[in-house]
């Protein structure tokens, strides 16, 4: 189910407009280079690519917005739960978000974006966040070490998003050193400050927090309660500690405890690869929604009950990637994930070298002819 303009009670007209007119075009640009902080893109390539794709999408003055908390209420009334696409650096961008909404994803998160860079740099805004009028509900995930950066970035983006999330889960060493991501699991005071500041400065935005679990669960419950008291309206719990790898089991009891300890919607995250996993997670935790990351990467149609990515979906993604100016490197990666289970070893090797859009298109034409 998708909750875009077809669900009038949840949407209200808004304007696709960042805080200042000169940054308006930022939100209308096509997807350009990848995340600036992971340093995988040569600078000259970023520059050439952003010039090539800038302004591809026409200005869209009106953009419907979605009330995410109402969406959860509606789901509860229907005896259902929300299906959420996780924030994924490099991957959960506009073309992918558009694709998965047509396969029962209710809410999409952007990749984590560094709030201090986003607020300071127009180039970062142009490249890190691209949206469309149909891109709703969308949650902007920020990584920040203080309330000022968090709130300022949220305010700048506020007319082009439905909610803002603080990442308290990124376990990487560089992030911990920068006092962002999972570092914040030790600083509930900073999280509370962020929630209170955004509530004051952009009250129309829904405020959400994505956490991991602490080794001492009492601390995690306390952190969630403090964030909610300060203004958080939705909590997502990835059921692993900062030190645990994604191959380790998810602690469903811990997620359940957090769900039972708070009075806002809670989303359970970890190891959802099939629709059955999703139902089981809700049964085990009692949560109001589930969030998937790796499962959606390999099968964007999992919430629609498809056991593997249908060819049509992969093909549709290719069209969306081209029309939104997605970097071919990112599109190729997505398609490699999606087709992994479809292709034998030889075919995978063949597709591996199809890393330009014409080559990917040609590959699909051949395959559709065979289907
Ligand atoms: C490629 C990739 C990128 C990710 N990027 C982010 C991110 O930007 N922000 C975040 O909070 N978590 C990020 N995560 C973690 C996921 O959101 C999720 O919490 C984790 O993968 C567990 O869910 P899963 O078992 O469904 O994969 C990322 C995970 C993957 C696989």
From TrEMBL:
Chemical reaction(s) catalysed: a 5,6-dihydrouridine in mRNA + NAD(+) = a uridine in mRNA + NADH + H(+); 5,6-dihydrouridine(20b) in tRNA + NADP(+) = uridine(20b) in tRNA + NADPH + H(+); 5,6-dihydrouridine(20a) in tRNA + NAD(+) = uridine(20a) in tRNA + NADH + H(+); 5,6-dihydrouridine(20b) in tRNA + NAD(+) = uridine(20b) in tRNA + NADH + H(+)
A molecular function (GO) term: mRNA dihydrouridine synthase activity
Keyword NAD: yes
Cofactor requirement: FMN
Keyword NAD attributed: yes
Superkingdom, taxonomy of origin: Eukaryota
Enzyme class of the recorded protein, top EC level: oxidoreductase
Keyword annotations: Flavoprotein, FMN, mRNA processing, NAD, NADP, Oxidoreductase, tRNA processing
Gene Ontology terms: biological process: mRNA processing
EC annotation from Swiss-Prot or TrEMBL: 1.3.1.90
Recorded family membership: Belongs to the Dus family. Dus4 subfamily.
Name of this chain's protein: tRNA-dihydrouridine(20a/20b) synthase [NAD(P)+]
Organism per entry: Catenaria anguillulae PL171
Source lineage: Eukaryota, Fungi, Fungi incertae sedis, Blastocladiomycota, Blastocladiomycetes
């Amino acid at each position: 189910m998708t909750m875009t303009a077809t669900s009038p009670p949840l949407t209200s007209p808004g304007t696709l407009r960042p805080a200042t007119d000169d940054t308006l075009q930022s939100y209308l640009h096509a997807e350009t280079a990848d995340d600036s902080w992971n340093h995988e893109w040569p600078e000259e390539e970023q520059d050439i690519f952003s010039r090539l794709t800038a302004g591809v999408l026409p200005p869209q003055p009106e953009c419907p917005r979605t009330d995410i908390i109402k969406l959860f209420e509606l789901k509860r009334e229907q005896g259902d739960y929300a299906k959420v696409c996780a924030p994924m650096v490099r991957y959960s961008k506009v073309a992918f978000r558009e694709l998965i909404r047509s396969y029962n994803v209710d809410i999409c998160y952007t990749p984590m974006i560094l709030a201090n860079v986003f607020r300071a740099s127009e180039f970062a805004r142009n490249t890190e966040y691209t949206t469309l009028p149909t891109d709703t509900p969308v949650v902007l995930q920020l990584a920040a070490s203080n309330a000022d950066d968090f709130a300022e970035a949220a305010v700048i983006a506020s007319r082009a998003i439905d909610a803002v999330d603080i990442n308290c889960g990124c376990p990487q060493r560089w992030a911990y050193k920068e006092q962002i991501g999972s570092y914040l699991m030790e600083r509930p005071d900073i999280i509370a400050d962020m929630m209170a500041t955004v509530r004051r400065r952009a009250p129309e935005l829904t405020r959400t927090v994505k956490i991991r679990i602490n080794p001492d669960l009492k601390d995690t419950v306390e952190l969630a309660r403090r964030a909610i008291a300060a203004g958080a309206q939705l909590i997502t719990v990835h059921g692993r500690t900062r030190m645990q790898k994604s191959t380790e089991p998810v602690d469903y009891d811990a997620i359940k405890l957090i769900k039972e300890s708070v009075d806002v919607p809670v989303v359970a995250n970890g190891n959802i690869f099939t629709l059955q996993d999703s139902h089981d997670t809700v049964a085990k935790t009692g949560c109001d929604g589930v969030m998937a990351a790796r499962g959606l990467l390999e099968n964007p149609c999992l919430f629609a009950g498809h056991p593997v990515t249908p060819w049509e979906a992969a093909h549709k993604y290719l069209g969306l990637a081209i029309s939104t100016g997605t970097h071919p490197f990112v599109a190729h990666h997505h398609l490699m994930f999606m087709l992994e289970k479809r292709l034998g070893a030889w075919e995978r090797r063949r597709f591996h070298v199809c890393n330009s859009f014409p080559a990917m298109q040609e590959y699909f034409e051949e395959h559709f002819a065979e289907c």
